# Entry
Amino acid sequence: MKYILTLILMVGLAFGSERPDDQKYIKSIIDECKFMYPDIVFKMYVQESGAGTSNLARNHNNVMGMKFPSKRPTLADGKTTSGFANYKTVLQSIWDFKIYEMMYLTGKSKSAYIRYLKDVYSRDKTYLDRFL
# Structure
């Protein structure tokens, strides 16, 4: 796992000029990451970051609304005063959500994946409803 995190970090530093509102670029990164349900992850990006226009996305490269973790490995390089993760690149933000998926969502059906996101990731029972 440590080797994978190092490799992802190196890739993220090499391609650090991306814009959080470039939806075509974000979609390509989501596809590259081989998420279980890339359509859901893209919809999360839209909701969490306002399609890359939120303060968190623009100033902290956090397009997935990730909080800074206390227990799992992360690609974040710090956190905001409100506890959200800060990233050097948008790419690192998306790969960090991939790490989250690998740790907590692997093997879940699509409905179980969405339910987990609603119950644990956001704690908002209507999370993603308007996008599904």
The mean pLDDT is 87. The longest strand covers residues 78-79. The chain is about 50% helix and 5% strand.
